[in-house]
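Box 3.1. Reading complex inputs
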Amino acid sequence: MNTRANSSGEPILAASGIVNRFGKQVVHDKLSLDVMPGEIIGIAGGSGSGKSVLLKTLTGLHSPDAGEVLLKGRPVQSIAAAERAALIGVLFQQGALFSSLSVAQNIMLPLREHTLLPAGQQEQIAAMKLALTGLPADSGIKFPSALSGGMVKRAALARALALDPRILFLDEPTSDLDPIAASGIDALILQLNQILGITVVIVTHDLTTLLNVCGRIAVLVDKTVTVDTADQLMKSDHPWIRDFFHGPRAEGAIKARDTSHGN
Amino acid sequence: MRLAPGSWSGAQTVTCMPANAQHASASPSQPALVVSGEGDQRALQGALEISTLVAAENALKAWSQPGPSRQLDVALLDSLDTPGALFLCGLRDKGVGLVGVSAEHRALLDLIYGLELKPIQKVRIAPRWRQLVVQLGKGAHDVRHEVIEIIRFVGRAASWTVSALLHPACLRPASISRHITETGIHALPIIGLMAIMIAIVIGYQGVAQLRPFGGEDYTINLVAVSVLREMGVLITAIMVAGRSGSAFTAEIGVMETREEVDALKVMGIEPMQVLVVPRVIALVITLPLLTFFADIMGLIGGAAIAQALLDVSPTQYLARLPQVVDGQDLFVGLVKAPVFAFFIAVIGCMHGLRVTGSAASVGRETTRAVVKSIFLVIVLDAFFSILFEKLGL
């Protein structure tokens, strides 16, 4: 993978001994996951395996029943709000753009709250983020309800990037998108990672994204994660992982990846 | 800020702490930016990030005005983010040469420089007097459309309701009975309480106004007549419009946002028949019953006021009632109820079916439905007053 992975050194995000349970149902049992600075890591798993809960735990939105999440060596929930906002960017599955604000106002909101930049400069930065995520300049004054699915994802990504976070969490970035828009998002993720050096955590079950973009993949099985590269995971003899990487959809995605690499 | 000239080695330096340092207090490694150098040569050291951007801009503002060749040494920059890169690109546009750009930063600078940056458009705001004219015209246009739409929908709803009544097999008794429970039985406590309160309010006013003329006994007439002819049905209709008309809009509106209404159409089921007709029939049955209940409670409230203010015992009050009111007063009040009910239900359903897409639209349509149905109830009540006057009822 062409990511700016830096496997040596301290993990930028370290979850250890995470236990999450709802009532009697245990979702995560002593789950540990290290994310290295500059890498793109995918989190995969079946429906109901706790992908979203894990994402919420990693971003500090959900307090685990046991264990801790360290962001740059400090517990994620003890970091001051403004600082955490500058470290973490999240692209929510439905975009979560504020419907009462235009796209540009959405992007400028964190800038207005957490920086002392003058309004003109905030607008410049917002225009830059729009261009960076491949949105036309005239989409800035549009409201989220006037955007297509792919544009919502791009606009939400532009907002997540507003404060130049060190880690970007993407929740199903390519779901509900047509294949062309999805490939565009994949390319954008790779570009952001290579040029800005942003660490990316992607929760997805889009095999194309997992195989083409992610350096390592964390598969959520048996209430914990198995982390490895795609090639190693394909050799796994765990039944779910085997089915996941050798089903008809996976074969197609692998074929597509091999062809594109061949070119 | 202009820096005093000095030698390169002993150059003046400006240390720029992050702008939001006071917010993010407990950080061990806050990025800082040092601007050094003099004359045409300046150097940046440290972090050029969103948090140090304001300071960097202030330090370099005067220096970066267009002029002779100047150079900015960025070799010692540890970190650079996209706003920082945008700032450097802006300097480059003003003719400042960037020296010592590391490979990593060059990629970022090239990316940002390559972006086609257009300023974000401003929404054009018309002058206030023009806005007023535009709004007036738009309002008139909207009112015309609304009226046409209401007439059309009322007609459709009426025709569907009549055809359902003519073909009882099309009626949905389960749905009708559910709506009767929700709009009727569940509304009993609040409507009863409101009717008593209204009777007390009228009673107090009556006593206060009639006492100087020695006619406070007529308060009983005032309360009984106004409750039976007007207040009972009006209060009930307004309460039902706020309670059930809005519920109709919200229920159907949410179904519309989840494409449930389209699903009905695809399955060949007419939404008017399954969503509108049962609600209309249910409310037309419920509202007269609720009105009758409100009338009774209003008269009980009258009894309480008679006892408290006039020392008329409930037995005496009951004996006097037939002399002051008759069946005609009751009829005049009750006959309005089904008409109000029809319009409240139809307006509620119409706005529910007008919901488009977003959740915000559900709220907007609900508000409109309530405002419009209460308005219509009062307009219709005025018409009834004139009509009954002409008929001599």
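In summary: Residues 1-13, 16-28 of chain B have pLDDT under 50 and may be disordered.
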